[in-house]
Amino acid sequence: MSDAGEVLLVCLFEDGKHVLSSNYKIIDVVCFMKNQNTAPEKSLSAPFVYPNMKIAFILLITCFAAWGVAANMTDPLVKVFSKIFTMSTFESALVQFAYYGAYFCLAIPAAFINARYSYKAGVLTGLGLAILGALAFYPASVSMTYGFFLAALFILAAGLSILETSANPFVMTMGPEGSAARRLNLAQAFNPVGTNIGVFLAATLILPNLNTASAEERASMAPEMLLSIRADELNSVMTPYVGMAFVLMIIWALIYFMRIPKSENKVNVDEVQTIDFMATLGRLLARKQYRWGVVAQFFNVAAQTCTWTFTIQYVQETLGGTEASASDYLQYSLIIFLISRFVMTWLMGFFRPAVLLSILALLGTALCLYAVMVPDVTGVWAIVSISACLSLMFPTIYSIALDGLGSDTKFGSAGLVMAILGGAVMPLVQGATIDEYGAIISYVVPAVCFLVVAAYGMFSVKNTSV
Fold first, then answer.
1. Where are the beta strands (DSSP E) in 264-403?
2. How far apart are CA 124 and CA 458, in angstroms?
3. Do 282 and 131 touch, CB atoms closer than 8 A?
């Protein structure tokens, strides 16, 4: 070794050959492959989740499952309340308006909680409010008032809005930025575990306990008999929600006592004082990638909610049968959704997320149109298969839109959660279409929604690196 100090400098070129040099002063130098952004050695050694965040990551996964349970117990309630209270599909679709409308209203307050305190504080606040909403189903069932149930759903969803606004970006920060999209897809893959549980609870605890009397038969019943039937049916609606409240209490306690590194759990006081909402909003809206991501998320959630909310009506109109038997196909949809989430997370190791998003959105449109044109058992399975397309969309749009936002991520996340309003608005459109033309024709609505998502995917392929 010379006086200056020798090191072995290794440069890896496209042909894979190594060039060895000496007589260099000892410095930290890394030469990369041509057209590569990161060193292969660093990519291989980068953890998927930081070691000190693994327990927190696992506990957050339970939150993703929890709001899946709530969301998909809610989907069948449109049909349930339509029957119990003898109302139109449009009126009963107010269930989804209350649920997803709460997401819109609480996302910005959630962003302020995250910015002022921490993601953990946001998660705990969201869980606490969701617990109150789930417990409110008990007095709602006693009052037997549709409006009371809508209020309970609004409170429950308000908590889940804060929870989701906090948990999604929290997961993205738990590892290297380069794997954020895959990490969020993996965490979101446990959401359909919850959705399957939610549909199972609805199929076993709610739908079988609905009285088989038709709207005409209910209209001719004595008031006392009709009141007794409604009481039994609404008690069946209440039971799984109150049970879920106790499960959420356990999750709240586990997360409260989990240890988060101070750098992740605290917000610098100076940083809090400089929060300028309007300036942040201006920066967010100036980014096409984010702005159109919010639009795409609106129509993605709209497509998902429309597809699942009216699956039972489509199956009954096409194949006949009871609500309980038709709900089996909704269960099949969510099983496909669950499996596809893991498959898509694996495929992201080989293909760009934006490319997969474009392909699956176009496929979703094709499946919807097939179901409209071929209303038989194959059309039913086309509706079921749409869930495979949906599986990738929410976390992928989320991660693409937030890519590179830096300190604006917390408020950017709120905008994407507010876009869940699509799940409140478009089911009303589809519900009105069902009242006028039937469930089969109504699947034109999610077909159009998928086209918007496909357009964003194509935009992302051309204009982003995700």
1. none
2. 37
3. no
Residue 273: how many other CB atoms lie within 10 Å: 7
The residue behind tokens 């089969």 is 440
- Report how far residue 67's alpha carbon sits from residue 74's, in angstroms, rounded to the nearest whole number: 11
- As a whole number of Å, the end-to-end CA separation of the chain is 45
Give the CA count within 13 Å in the CB-facing half-sphere of 119. 27
Q: 3-class SS at 335?
A: helix
Residue that the structure tokens 């069902």 belong to: 434
Alpha-carbon span 233 to 227, nearest angstrom:
10
The number of helix segments (H) and strand segments (E) in the chain equals 23, 2
Pick from 304, 262, 268: which is nearest to 391 by CA?
304
Give the per-residue pLDDT at 334.
81
* Residue from 108, 162, 104 nearest 130 by CA: 162
What distance in Å separates the CA atoms of residue 83 and residue 77, rounded to the nearest whole number?
10
What is the chain's Cα-based Rg? 25
pLDDT in tens, 361-411: 999 999 999 999 999 999 999 999 999 999 889 889 988 998 888 778 778
Spatial separation of the C-alpha atoms in residues 435 and 174, rounded to whole Å? 46
pLDDT at residue 453, rounded to an integer: 96
What are the domain boundaries of the chain? 1-45, 46-463
Query: Class of the 46-463 domain?
Result: mainly alpha
Q: Which residues contact 270 (CB under 8 A, 6 or more apart)?
A: none
Tokens of 230: 């409604």
Around 144, how many Cα atoms within 13 Å sit in the side-chain half-sphere? 12
Gap between the Cα atoms of 385 and 337, Å rounded: 9
Torsion of CA 344, 348, 352, 354, to 10 degrees: 40
- The Cα–Cα gap between 95 and 358 comes to 31
Q: How far is CA 8 from CA 26, 30, 93, 174, 464, in A?
A: 9, 11, 69, 34, 37
- Distance, in Å, from the CA atom of 59 to the CA atom of 38, rounded to the nearest integer, reads 31
Q: Report residue 325 CA to chain centroid gap.
A: 26
pLDDT digit string, tens, across residues 328-365: 898 899 889 889 988 988 888 788 989 999 999 999 99
Contact criterion met (CB below 8 Å) for 453 and 126: no
pTM of the model: 0.69
CA distances from 144 to 79, 127, 331 (A): 17, 26, 28
